[in-house]
Amino acid sequence: MELVLAFLCLLSFISLVLSVPGHHHGDNSTHHHDYCVLGAGPAGLQMGYFLSRSQRDYIILERNAGPGSFFQKYPRHRKLISINKIYTGRQNKEFNLRHDWNSLLSDRPDLLFQRVSRDLYPEADTYPLYLSMFESELGLKVKYRTDVGRIRASDLAGNKSYILTDQHGTDYKCRVLLVSTGLWVPEQVDFVGSDLVEGYESVSTDPEEYKDQAVLILGKGNSAFETAQSILGRASRIHLYSPSPVRLAWQTHYVGDLRAVNNELLDTYQLKSLDGLVEGGLEDIAIVRRRREEGKMRTGKKRPATSSDRKEQFYLTLSELLDGHDGNKGANITAENLPGYHDDNFSLRQPYDRVIRCLGFRFNFTIFDGLARLPHSTCARGRLPAVTAWYEGRGTSNLFILGTAAHSRDYRTSAGGFIHGFRYTVRAVHKVLEQRYHNNAWPATRLSTSQLLSWILKRVNEASGPYQMFGVLGDIILLQGAHCEYLEEFPVQALPHFSALSGRRISEHGLLVVVMQYGLNHTNTLGPGRAESEWTKAWKSNFLHPVIYYYPTLPTEKDMRQRPVGWPLPRPNAVHHMVEDFLTEWDQPISHSQPLRRFLEYCLKTDLRAFYAESCFRLSLTNHKPPLFCRQGYLNKEGFVGNSHLWQHAREAGLMPAHQGSVIPADDGLFSEYLPHAGAAVTSTIDFDL
Amino acid sequence: MCGISAVALLLCFISAQCGSPDASRLVEHTAQSFRDAVLSGKTSFIYFGKHVNPAIKAFIEQLEMSAHALEDYGIVVGKVNCSKDSVEKYCTGEEVMKKTYLFRGADVLRSFDIDTVFDVNAIVSHVLFSVLFTEVRYVHTPAELLAVERAAKGKMDIVMGHIQVLGLPEHRALMEAAFVYGAKYQFVQTTGAPLLKHLGVADPTSVQARLWFLHCRGVAHRSEPCPHTLMRKPLTTINIHTFLQLMEAPLLTEAAVDPDEVKVVYNHLNVPLLFLFTQSETLQLDRDTAESVARRLRGEVGVVLIHRDSHRVKTPLKHNAAYRLPQEEVRYFSLKKVEELIDLFREQLFQGTEEEEEEEEEEEEEEQDDRWSSLDVLDDEVAESVYRDRGVMLDTEAVTKLTAETFSAAVTQNGLMVVLFYVKWDAVCVAFLQSYVEVDDALDDVSGIELAYVDCGEWTVVCSDQNITSFPSVLLYRPSEVPQRYRGMLGTGSLHRFLLLSQVPSPTSLSSSAEVLSFLEGDLYNTNSALSPVRVLGLYSPADTDVVVFEEAAKSLRGETLLGLFVHEEAERWAEEHSVTLPALLVSRGPGILREAHSLHSSTPQELISYIQSTTLDPFGSNSCWTVSSRGLSRVCSSTTCFGALTAGHWRRGVSLPTRAPPAGRDHRPVAEENRRWPGAACRCGLRCRVGSPCALLRLPGCYGRRSAWVRGSAEP
């Protein structure tokens, strides 16, 4: 164990000594761990894998009896909408992860989700199954049935450590706490009659129960549409009500928006088949109960009450129309309290048999006490905790948020809230941990600068991390003259703190950042002109495409704050867009490779072209400094020779000078030139000893 | 004369407009001075303000400028600071006041929102328009215009301006002209599209401001319409003035002198002149023609009819027309049709400048297109030659294509497995694949060597497991040995030679002096003599444990050099024979050539490797030229002297040679090492060679054999 941890050890030992009086719990057992991972969901197990691979002292605490308990219940209609694409036509494991949204990362090539399900949209039950397999095959240390109800922090000289208390009163003292509890508290909005509403978490999933019923669903996200879709064939009328209009994932490129797999209701709405979407605020509405026969003129004849008469129905109204009525007392509601009375074509004037709330979930903030308390993020209506660019809680050092709960960094933009996104951010956080607590710098590949172009093309053509976490994780290239260091999947928002987080230094040559990005211009996603095919207009690309930023020095925190709206990074000294590609293959010489090479040449201020040995020979004789390719190849005796067929092409293109002076008769065989030369007496007859 | 002074007046407005507002003409009123000003009966334009925010500040700056401009029209521009002096009725309670008022005497002619009078042009145009309210008629429909025309017929000409948006510079120009010429012409302003149609504008939606001159004064009969002339230049004060002057000038001027000497009213108006020649025989006809031309070009060109009969006219008869552009020489030409004339002026002379610009733009665009399309051309010789082969499928069937599944089995099998790691987007990889296939062909009959390749674009894990960070990479796998990276030239010949030499175990253990001799003389492994005449023998006494260092080094050098190892009591004798001490190195360069011997002092394999590499390199310049600069040199050596062919030529072209001064204290760096580091160096020192034969050293000043291979500037023969 390195010094840092040893120091932490000492610190926490002291803190333990200090905190012992008065804080002794029932079964007074205390466990110590360097790393505690809270929650054995996908994010927790993912982190568990990385910790176990680097042989750290860690424990994963899970309150349920198995991993991924959220998936035991959710999604309620049991269809996962994460793509499980098994056949991609490619063998590249890394590339295939671009289209496998369910698997976790590991070094086992076969530990993929496709082992448990072959469906494109798998059954939800398979997910806990996959997680159990992942956990057991990798031998991760998970402690099940440990319900942590309280988390405190002890702060010693600004260095926080965390004490977790479970349902038995057992304490877990953790130097680093990794919270991967996900979002599971159903989001509720307080309005009059909100208690009359059923929740997504408990609503019946049997379509038969909705036979001929009018249903009002609050929300327009995937859970709302999923619920609507399941009852589409039974319910009489389904209305979806929420403040914002529906956002389609295939338009916004955000997987959290409504996915096409759930959107059948859009059809029945637009084809006028009784269903519909309505926009309106949730806070000022009221749901009121009213007997069906009320409001009708009484004829004096008492009819026996039928079952349908007895049935109460719900009306959506505005709280201001209730005149201080409680609203829950169905009997008090008169026609004047309903909007239809005032506005005779009010869209939601008809009563509903059910009102269902499908508003998503929020983070459970309640278990964090005192110094461990987590601030709310400003986005997503405060449902998520606020985190730094490297996913450490704001104000809670040594506490990191992983998984869906860390989505506030890229809410409604990238995939950080989803398995296929956060598996990479977890990996990034693990690299941060390794550097901070164990002095293991961020892994980097050292490359010859002449190999940089090829390496960038390799990454943009296969890397899944930057592809899934577009605009969030990017590859960093530290330029160092003849060589460069290539760091993968760094959270680009954390660039101002790059040196501290990665343990690597920026040289005076600066750095490049490779990120994937969608275009900022919002165009009609299916309309004409949606795609750009001219590489000269690559900056207009709309679809996901690689963008390379060049900075001579690290951007500062201020630069980062003041970056242009929608940009993942501040304005660079030079930027290069690689033109979007229909096949997402960026490997063509004219449209992809050469423009990128020229950009790199501009940034590195050097010629990055490749040359045949013959050209290198000539260039070495006629230049003070031959091109880099010649210096790193030919002049190291590793030049690239080529053959007469290729030279002929180069000469015809005017790129290689034709034979000078008297031409050697072209020996057709290549060997004749090279091999038998040794037969001649090679030795010089000249006396060298001057 | 009046016209000229009007120009002067207008010019001074323009200059006032851009003049510095230092001496502000903006009157700052107190409540009292405001009352006085109003009572004086003057026209004044006053802003009442209190709070000054940036928008108001900008407005006041514009107001100051307009004070200059409006002063010439007798309009006083002022402002009242309501926070100091409250003027009833005008100083309202609002914090930000956005109203200005135009007073004539005590009456408010009009009030404006400052959004309407947003800048100096807008202020001047709106104020003048209000002041001239009774003089400038505002019409919208053709019927209204006809009414104005009816009233003017026989009395006055009409100037009609079409302004798309009020308050722009064109509006101001029109109003200023109306102020100057208001008594002379009936001014009409319109913003409507219906009128444009009435006046024959094809596309009324075009936003251009326009001005027409309706010749109503000369119309005697009520039923006759007023002929009109369109001003074809942009609406500026100067252009309007020029245009109105031209409307006043006679339609056709007649003269009896050469065009150079013609003096007409147009001269000072900077208007092109058209000269038509006539003689008494055709005078009437020519005059009619000239008049019709003049009518059509009215307002643009002055037409002069020149009587040839006069003796002062010396223009040759072959020309019947001429024109003179302002500040240019007279140009003569022959006219055949009137249309040509119109064409000449409308299309070529006037639009000429514009067209040229357009053409330039087009050219620029084309140039830009050219630039883009030239960027589409690959400028990398390897990429381009590979790209030219894009239609050709390389036959790689003979070479095994490895996958993640087959890789580990393939590299652990018996014999030598050579694996090329490549990516298909790298041109060097694709080009090298051709050489690789050639090597595979050449090794067809050699057993024990198999060639394979891995596509790292597809089998990324295989490549990352092998730590491949550079493409192409060639690795050599032998069972239960660490993979060896090929570090030679990426060419068919070099790789072929390397692989053949790799077959020989390294080091080759020799057991007797007889074997040693046969090794050094090239009898042992004689098939490989052609590949490498150089043989290196390590001599160790049986007790020496440093043998492992040699073995380690030999392993790394496998394929580069043939290495033998003789660990025997007799090694001592061999060392003595060559007067060195054990451990020692013997280098043989072929049978019958004096062997070199070195005592070994290297303690690490790395040191030993570089030592062996330096000793085995050919003596200065011969073989290294071949192997390193291979084809490049053989071509250059087509003349008798390398030096002459290369360096002299380059010098002559003014290209300086790469020269490097020897590092301090390293004067005795062996040339061989230098050759390795910089393979071109040897040749630069001058090599005599015959066509097709290897180089031989030519002794030249500045070249000092092995001891110093530095090329100095003085090395030129």
From TrEMBL, chain A:
Pfam families: Pyr_redox_3. The keyword Oxidoreductase applies. Keywords: Oxidoreductase, Signal. The keyword Signal applies. One of its GO terms (molecular function) is monooxygenase activity. Coiled coil: none annotated. Residues 1-19 form the signal peptide. GO terms for biological process: ERAD pathway. GO terms for cellular component: endoplasmic reticulum lumen. This is FAD-dependent oxidoreductase domain-containing protein 2. The gene is FOXRED2.
